[in-house]
Amino acid sequence: MSASVGNFSLWLSLCFATFQFLISRKKNSHSALQFNKIAVNGLLLCILVSFFSLMYSHIVSDFSVVNVFQNSHTTKPLLYKISGVWGNHEGSMLLWILVLTIFNYFIYKLYNQKNFTFISKSLETQAIITIGFLLFTIFTSNPFERMIPAYPNGLGFNPILQDPALAIHPPLLYIGYVGFSAAFSFSIAAMSINTEEKISWYSYMKPFVLTAWTFLSVGIAFGSIWAYYELGWGGWWFWDPVENASFMPWLLGTALVHSLIAVEKRKSLQSWVLLLAILAFLLSVIGTFLVRSGILTSVHTFVLDPARGIYILVFIALLGGYSLILFGIKSKNFLNKRYFSFFSREGSILVNNVLMITVCASVFLGTIYPLLVEVFSNNKISVGEPYFNSTTIPIMIPAILVMGIGPILSWNKADATKIFGKSFPSILLTSVISIIFFWVYQPHNMLGLVGIILAFWIMSNILLTLVPQLILKNKKFIQDNIPKYSNGMIIAHLGIALLILGITGSSIWQKEKIIRMKVNDKTEIHNYNIVFKEINKIAGPNYLALQGNFLIYNKKKKIIAELKPENRFYPVANNSTTEASIHTNLLRDLYIVLGEGDINKGWVVRIYYNPLVIWIWIGAFMIFLGGLFSIKSNLKFIKRLTL
Amino acid sequence: MIKTLSLSVLIIVITILFSKTNIHSVEPEEFLQNPKQELKARNISKNVRCLVCQNQSIDESAAPLAKDLRILIRKKVKEGHTENEIYKFLTDRYGDFILLKPPLKRTTFMLWFLPFVFLAIGIFILSWHHKKSKKKLPHT
Amino acid sequence: MKKQLLIFPSIVFFFILLVFFYLLIIDRDPTELPSVLIEKKVPRFEAESLLNDKKFISTEEFGNKTTIVNFFATWCKPCREEHRYIKRLSNTKGIKIIGINYKDNPQRTIKWLKELGNPYSNIAIDSNGQIGIDWGVYGLPETFIVNAEGIIKYRHVGPITKKVYNNFYSKVIANRE
Q: Which of A148, A164, A371, B41: disulfide with B77, CB 3.0–4.6 Å?
């Protein structure tokens, strides 16, 4: 019953979206506003009904709905029945559309007397995107398909995917991808309207871009967190095509966020913003294409179906073709005649843009290159981690260096020698801290050195910029040449510093030990003694498991942890997983995985000492927090704008 | 007694079931005695793709083919073959796909060359901008 | 100047879309690897024979007649399903089929063949997977066509099913001439 409601609602939303498209093209402001109110609200309501009726079908385990049958099971815990709604292709498309319509609603709310044409054009573009996704979902990926007769139970669900981090990962990512759709719409609208209208289109774009980037960042972080805790060898990034598909919009989003600041403050880099907004969204949709078309295989790919792929490809061609041609024609209207110095803050943002795009291009090349080789030769090659690491890391290093001094440079005018003077204190501080670090922590390594220096470089710069700001806060004036810094920027940049610290520590100084242990055997890793105390069988809600019990002793012979890695078997899914057991503190993770074995010959035990891993997650969380702060202060600004 | 018995049964059952799963990658028994050779073998393995897995090296993978290849690589390292000889042995049989780091040849030339081109374009844009700004801005 | 700058990336954009489009419309399995042994001589190897005491020597077995080489095992379900098509192929005039029993239990294989029928003129035992590695095998079953000069001409990955039988058969015939 609810599935029929859901399906009907989906068709109805298509009508509302089409209605919105037609209305937004009307010139008469008064009636268009009224009708668009109906269209936007109707669309949102219908999609909400659709989405929640699918969720309802999952919760009550209505196996007459194909989507529920294929992806759910009565023994699944409730949380995962709910997250299972978007853990499959059809349901995730519905989530995409839901987020599209929510952002659509917020675009609508921005209407006022002055911006009618601009907002209408944005809503028109947003409507086209929504119609495109709705047609795709209804005709090729309908989650409300029924099957008669209904089986009594479903096909269960992959136990690896039953995890809280993974449950929240898609919604966060989609806020990212869809947020860029709003930026795309604004970009098209800005280029389509009469330039005499003098709309500060970039101000409208900013809250959406900030939201998109912030949530994309934390969405990617949760994916990595899941991989680290679940997959059993301490890795958290694999340059898998679908991971790359989320990383590329993030890179462009980073360039976009910073360019928007330059546009706001100095009206420069406008055509960069327009282009980046288009490209970020196009890459989001291309990412969707790569995952769902069957063109590549990856751990992340959904059901392989070339027909779906062709549809999305046509959609990309139309959207991309139109937007890029429009950009080609109209971008010259947005050139700022005031050229800024290369050594100014805008200059550093420009450098960042160039570097981010270079990394993005290399990642894109590496991801699709195997496909090109396949078409043009009989050969098949694979492009893996070594390629991506060697092409991205060397570019990221100068980007981080620029990130350090960028915020302390002044707008528009600057002098190369003055920069050195400004940054000298932080150079000094960085060197001092780095030397202390390597004096305390012995193992030396070139790449490790670089990573640590970069992390401390950012932290030193932040510290040295905060100090005068704090001092000045007490005096009741702010001097003209000491810039104010947003809390969001400080927190987010600090987050990046911690992220680099964590990445460097865990990649460079990781220690691994693989041995076979019988019960009561001892081993050691990096000053810790580990005793294999016992092995037990346990039962979980939908699994049976073999659990190893390991005692960890520190140098002083005290027990600091008891780690219990498990090997689980899920009878319904006929699938097994390993659950690593991890002891975390600020300095390192101790990570134990139980392998195969038996009572007689013992078990294979893999032990990892991963230094500084927690700082990756802390850094990512701080980036998220910084983004939230920026969104908050930006919303205050927007309120004033739209009154 | 019953507890040990049922535990053993459970272990056997789970072990049989686990023989199809990804919980063991390189195993201690595969290690070479000579640590230098072992390190060499592991570094080579880390660059060899597991052909039946999703984006894993044979060092990380538990697939039977991965294990066979790991053992084969160690045998060849012990026999004194160089890294390149071992890679050639593998690509002669499985093609370039088996390497995670694509080798530099005619078909992969663009792959390794284009990132430099991207960087060059980027630097060009920056220097073009720098020249223009020098012209337009008054000297301080 | 700007316009010309933008034309180049647009061309690249549409070129990439065309490549994607092409890959979608052809019939392709993204997980399948092409064999690098095509047009190369058969690997040289020696092994135990399953059904008799003589050694299996590759130089004696290949190079005289068009040969189909089928890698199989009793623990491989699709191998069991494709077996009747292998048997059908064995009726073709002027060719022979060699089986390579991959990482299997010989006694079980003998029983399996008794139950399902034996289309193979000879069977080599590959107990540790080495022969498989030499042939670039990465899964079971895989079937190769070797011409009368001992050159590998074709590899089929996966079971020979009803769907692919005719295509495979025509390739066998083509290489027989």
A: B41
- Cβ-Cβ contacts under 8 Å between A and B: the total is 163
Extract the tokens encoding A632: 């908050």
Q: CA-to-CA distance for A245 and A283, rounded, in angstroms?
A: 7
Measured between CB atoms, does B121 come within 8 Å of chain C? no
Note whether A377 contacts B: Cβ–Cβ < 8 A.
yes
Q: Do A516 and B54 touch (CB under 8 A)?
A: no
Cβ–Cβ contact C4 with A under 8 A: no
Q: What's the pLDDT tens digit per position in A453-495?
A: 999 999 998 888 777 776 666 554 455 444 567 888 999 999 9
In a domain? residue B6: no
Q: Do A133 and A70 belong to one domain?
A: yes
Q: Are A608 and A511 in contact (CB under 8 A)?
A: yes
- CATH T-level topology, domain C36-176: Glutaredoxin (3.40.30)
Q: Where are the alpha helices (DSSP H) in A293-344?
A: 306-330
- Secondary structure class of A262 (helix, strand, coil): helix
ipTM for the whole complex: 0.86
- Domain of A153, in residue numbers: 1-162
Distant-in-sequence, close-in-space partners of A494: CB < 8 Å, separation ≥ 6: A458, A459, A462, A622, A626
For residues A521 and A537, what is the distance between their CA atoms, to the nearest angstrom? 19
Look up the pTM and report it.
Answer: 0.90
How many structural domains comprise chain A?
4
Alpha carbon separation from A200 to A265, A332, A641 (Å, rounded): 12, 17, 9
Taking only residues 319 to 358 of chain A, the set having a beta carbon closer than 8 angstroms to any beta carbon of chain C reads 320-321, 324-325, 327-328, 331-332
pLDDT digits (tens, 9 = 90+) for B69-96: 999 999 999 999 999 999 999 999 999 9
